[in-house]
Design brief:
The chain is an alpha+beta fold. It has 2 domains: about 90 residues, no CATH class; about 100 residues, Barwin-like endoglucanases (Beta Barrel), CATH 2.40.40. The chain has 4 helices and 12 strands. The radius of gyration is 17 Å and the shape is globular. The N terminus and C terminus are likely disordered.
Amino acid sequence: MRLRHVMLAGIFLALGGCASTPRSVPASSRAYCVAGHGCYHVLASAAGYSARGTASWYGLGDTGRPTASGAPFDPQAMRIADKTLPFGTWVTIRNLRNGREAVAMVDDRGPFYGGRIMDATPAVARQLGFYESGTAPVRMSAVPKSALSAAQRQAARDDEHTTLVYARRHPYRIFAEAGRFAVRGVFDITATGVRVAVGIVRGVLVLGFDVLKRL
């Protein structure tokens, strides 16, 4: 049993040291864990994605702090936090209460509480008309890559570059929800399929078994 523990530790440490590469990633590797909140699969592709649930907004007082992708949190940007969509994914969000819509890009992870499917910046919340109420029922749909504007494509590329640089500079820790949660995991992924090693930290054996049990 002890040998098995050592072997698993070696496997997870090796995964943590892998460089980001533009190749397909096994489903078991596209995952991260959040202390106290469980483990989450990151989708290999957002193609055809659609979901309904409760949205909230976040980030007052967090301006400039790193999001999970490493991009500084900007409350005026059209950005959202999502648990499973690849970084750089653009989505159309419709407030089912008032019919208002917004288009925003995923650059953070969360929300990890309350059964919510999305956390928005204040700018997105205002456009959707739920800034005052705090939450709203929404439908999210991924924008097909073929429908993205040149500016949206560039924003996704910029975010991917930021993610890769941040992961290399901070190999043992990334942040979600503008720094509220320490995230530990195996790999995260960007919209183009580039994988990013994240958060293999001390306690790797416990994390390793948790991933194996949950994924």
